[in-house]
Write a structure and sequence with these properties.
This protein is of the alpha/beta class. It has one domain: Rossmann fold (3-Layer(aba) Sandwich). A hairpin with a 4-residue loop joins strand 7 and strand 8. Helix 1 crosses helix 2. The protein is globular, with a radius of gyration of 17 Å.
Length: 265
């Protein structure tokens, strides 16, 4: 019998407030994980919304930079475009420019996907990196302390796009995924890996995401069309950090900026 998934959502008035909420969430989860286990393993996504949060984490004038346990952080990526690391479309380049060039995170703690390689080779290299850095045995899955996701207007998350082969992949940790309507290859963590995360959250902003967010969270289950519906953390809780525009079609939070939903996982 499918487990019930509790969805907690926090709504901020605008993009700036959402970036601050996200930065605070990164710091809180990383600090808690590092205190418990001596390290914090975080997997991040690209996009303009996380970019603003990364910039806050790197800003010495903000409280987040000094509160983040950089010396205990291990940074990974949820997905990457198949481009070199200096390409304008690279998720790694965005993160480096927004944050990594300005924070004391040692290079050996930065685990990027090598988008400059052939897609299948890049996916295999990343799977090997995960197995080595997590010390995995056989079919064991990595358990990230925090996984940050976005959601596209087509309902995709990570590089799990509608009607693509990666949606049916459960035997690998990372795969190459060809996205036909973009005529492009991507590297992505698979959804079983994402669902193993101790804490998983979507960071979503903008009125253009309101309808698809409603369909994903409240509509009939159809993960081939809406891959974000595959995300159902094993712990039974999924967190959404939203701005007011993105949350406009979800049930009202009663003016408190916090709401809860429940659906089949």
């Amino acid at each position: 019998m499918p487990q019930k998934l509790r969805i907690e959502y926090f709504v901020e008035p605008d993009a700036a407030a959402l970036a601050r909420r996200a930065a605070q969430h990164f710091v809180e989860v990383a600090a808690r994980a590092s205190a418990l286990r001596g390290r914090a393993r975080i997997a991040i996504s690209g996009g303009s919304t996380p970019k603003a949060a990364f910039a806050l984490l790197a800003d010495g004038a903000q409280p987040f930079r000094s509160a983040m346990p950089w010396e205990k952080l291990e940074l990974y990526w949820v997905d990457e475009r198949c481009v070199p690391p200096d390409h304008p479309d690279s998720n790694y380049r965005m993160t480096r420019e927004a944050m990594l060039d300005r924070v004391p995170l040692a290079p050996e703690r930065i685990h990027r996907m090598e988008g400059e390689l052939a897609p299948e080779a890049a996916a295999a290299r990343y799977e090997k990196e995960l197995r080595t850095s997590f010390g995995l045995q056989d079919a064991e899955l990595p358990r990230f302390d925090l996984i940050a996701l976005g959601m596209g207007p087509d309902g995709h998350t990570a590089s799990l796009f509608p009607h693509t082969a990666a949606l049916n992949e459960t035997g690998h940790l990372a795969v190459a995924n060809h996205v036909q309507n973009k005529d492009a290859w991507r590297i992505t963590l698979t959804w079983p890996v994402i669902n193993q995360g101790a804490s998983v959250f979507f960071l979503i902003a903008g009125a253009d995401k309101a309808e698809i967010l409603k369909q994903v969270m409240l509509g009939p289950r159809d993960p081939e069309r809406l891959p974000s519906q595959l995300i159902a953390p094993a712990g039974g809780i999924l967190t959404l950090l939203l701005d007011k525009a993105a949350a406009s079609l979800l049930p009202t939070t009663g003016g408190h900026g916090f709401g809860e939903l429940e659906r089949e996982g």
